[in-house]
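=== RUN LOG ===
request id: a7f3
mode: sequence -> structure
chains: 1
length: 202
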Amino acid sequence: MAEGKIRRLIDQINAKPPLKESYVNPEAPYSRYVISPYHALSPLRKPHYQFLTEWIKGSMEKDESILEIGCGVGLWGYYLKQLGYENYVGVDINRLLIEIGKEATNLDLRIMDGTQLKLEDNSFDFVGYVNSFFNYEKNDCRNFVKEALRVSRKWIEFDTVLNEINFAKSPTKEEMKEWLGDKIVVEMPLAQGRYLWIGKVE
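=== RESULT ===
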């Protein structure tokens, strides 16, 4: 199973000297983070992934396309594939995570900066910045929203951390409402101080 293979690959990496910056896209220096088994393997253990998976099952057809920004090793995409959603693409700015994910899952995973997506306009039915829309500067967050609106033809998703004791520099609810406007169709508080928005583009 992909989860076990991902864990073995991460263990091999962690046994080596510390990660070098060469693993990270130099155009996106804020992407430097430690590869931990917990974060790489946690998608279905986190409330926003659980809620979003159920929402997709009830709102999208199996042949519709899904783009996940900040996909890590692509484990959420792997689970979506098991549910029949095979038209999935995941992007992340960390080359090492993408390499691990491609080896373990055989998914379409690409190295890409979420603030500057090298994708065509209106090219995906769903664009989600799942578990990646925090700890960035406000200008980056605004660019995330702009890129999602450009690339999606139906749905966009963002989730963030609104807990004041968290390290995250998250956008406020007021800022999210300003950026998304009347496109918001789901606004959901979740466990662990998280908040999730889904917008309808069409």
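=== NOTES ===
The radius of gyration is 16 Å.
The domain at 2-200 is CATH 3.40.50.150 (Rossmann fold).
=== END ===
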